[in-house]
Amino acid sequence: MSQESRKIKSSIIAKKFTELSEYNAADTILLYYPFGSEPDITMIIRKTLEDGKKVILPKVTGSVLKLYYVDDIKSQMRMGFYGIMEPDDGICRIAEFSDVGLALIPGICFDKSLNRIGYGGGFYDRLIPLLPQNAKKISICFQEQIVDKIPAEKYDKPVDIIITEKKLYK
């Protein structure tokens, strides 16, 4: 996918995400910093902060994700695990899993039954059960990342909604 196409599709996905009733109802949103060829969600992070919502971003610590409040992605982020930008734990306040009202969950492949395949570390499969039950789990991806069916094990945690530039899966 060209950079221009990725930028256009990322913008469409971001707009769909920030127009969701689940987004508008949430005060505190767990996001992640984009990596590799994922949709560029830095615009979602900026919009969430502009909307006066609290932004939580994860930091890999050993085999788990620790959560931190981030108010400014330019000054409070540092290069971390796998070269992904993460909150600077010397600056950012710790967030609790119970603080999350809505969670954006990454992945590399998704199916129409809302299953996901991550990057293989199991970080989000371990994180999802720790989130409040009423916190919606949403994934965003490009339509090309949607397949009919992926293998899902008992430890694989599905999401509630998947947004692509073309469709919304619930």
How would you describe what is shown here?
This protein has a single domain (3-106, 119-144, 159-169), classed as NagB/RpiA/CoA transferase-like (Rossmann fold). The protein has helices at residues 3-18, 21-25, 42-50, 123-127; strands at 28-30, 54-61, 64-70, 77-79, 85-87, 94-95, 102-104, 109-111, 116-117, 136-140, 146-147, 161-163, 168-169. α1 packs parallel to α3. The chain has an eight-stranded mixed β-sheet with strand order 6-3-2-1-7-10-12-13. Strands 9-8-11 form a three-stranded mixed β-sheet, with no helix packed on it. Strands 4-5 form a two-stranded antiparallel ribbon. 21% of the residues lie in helices and 27% in strands. β12 and β13 (168-169) form a beta hairpin. It has four helices and 13 strands. The chain has 170 residues and is an alpha/beta fold. The longest helix is centred in the first third of the chain and has 16 residues, at 3-18.
